[in-house]
């Protein structure tokens, strides 16, 4: 349901974005994108795929995390010092997503009037615009 957001942000930013909803294919998708000439590759993880996106840090140029739900072991196995430029997007009323203070210290953090999956079309468009603007700046 959210892949149109990935396509919109990629188009608006002029970057290649890998949707990390299937982590078993993400690394090969990044490799393929690079082989096709992608100059800037971003991994975008949402909800539970946020931790998987973080694990791709050595392979990418930017990281987008939307309404992340970090698995408990993500706090142990992922080190934010090695992350590329990162944007984290949270819903103000999201009671599902988790916060990671160390990651937020090193990232651009944006908050939106939203619950985990519930947000207005205006807020959804703003989230896409913010992601694209962030990617154009890195």
The biggest beta sheet is recorded as: 5 strands, parallel
Can you give the mean pLDDT?
Answer: 90
Q: What's the total number of strands?
A: 5
Percent strand equals 15-25%
Structural category is alpha/beta
Rg of Cα set: 14 Å
Spatial order of strands in the largest sheet:
1-2-3-4-5
Listing every helix as H and every strand as E from the N terminus to the C terminus, the arrangement reads HEHEHEHEHEH
Number of helices: 6
Net shape: globular
Query: What level of helicity do the residues show?
Result: 40-55%
The unreliable regions are: none
Span of the ends, CA to CA: 27 Å
Describe the 3D structure.
- By secondary structure, the protein is α/β, with parallel strands linked by helices.
- Helix content is about 40%, strand content about 20%.
- It has 6 helices and 5 strands.
- A 5-stranded parallel β-sheet has the order 1-2-3-4-5, sandwiched between helices.
- The mean pLDDT is about 90.
Question: Short summary of the structure?
Answer:
This protein has 138 residues and is α/β, with parallel strands linked by helices. Helices cover 41% and strands 20% of the residues. It is built from 6 helices and 5 strands; from the N terminus they run αβαβαβαβαβα.
Features of the shown structure:
single chain, 138 residues, alpha/beta, five-stranded parallel sheet, 6 helices, 5 strands, 20% strand
Write the layout of secondary structure elements.
Layout: H1 3-13, E1 16-19, H2 23-35, E2 41-46, H3 49-55, E3 62-66, H4 74-77, E4 85-91, H5 101-105, E5 108-112, H6 121-137
Parallel strand pairs: 1-2, 2-3, 3-4, 4-5
């Amino acid at each position: 349901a959210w892949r149109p957001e990935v396509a919109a942000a990629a188009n608006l930013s002029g970057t290649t974005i890998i949707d990390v909803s299937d982590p078993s294919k993400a690394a090969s998708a990044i490799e393929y994108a690079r082989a096709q000439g992608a100059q800037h590759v971003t991994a975008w993880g949402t909800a539970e795929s946020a931790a998987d996106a973080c694990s791709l840090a050595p392979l990418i140029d930017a990281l987008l995390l939307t309404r992340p739900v970090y698995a408990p072991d993500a706090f142990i196995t992922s080190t934010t010092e090695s992350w590329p430029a990162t944007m984290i997007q949270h819903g103000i009323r999201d009671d599902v997503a988790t916060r990671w203070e160390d990651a937020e210290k090193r990232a651009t953090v944006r908050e939106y009037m939203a619950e985990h999956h519930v947000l207005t079309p205006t807020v959804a468009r703003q989230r896409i615009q913010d992601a694209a603007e962030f990617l154009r700046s890195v």
